[in-house]
Amino acid sequence: MDRMIYTALSGAKQTLEQQASIANNMANVSTPGFRAQLNAFRAVPVVGDEATTRVFTAATTPGADMSNGPTIETGRALDIAINGDGWLAVQSADGSEAYTRVGNLQVAADGQLITMGKLPVLGDAGAIAVPPGAQVMIGKDGLITALGAGDPATDAAEVGRLKLVNPAASDLVRGDDGLFRMRPGMDSAEADPAVSVTSGAIEGSNVNSIAVMVDMIANARRFEMQMKVISSADGNEQKANQLLSMS
Question: Does residue 2 surpass a pLDDT of 60?
Answer without folding.
Answer: no
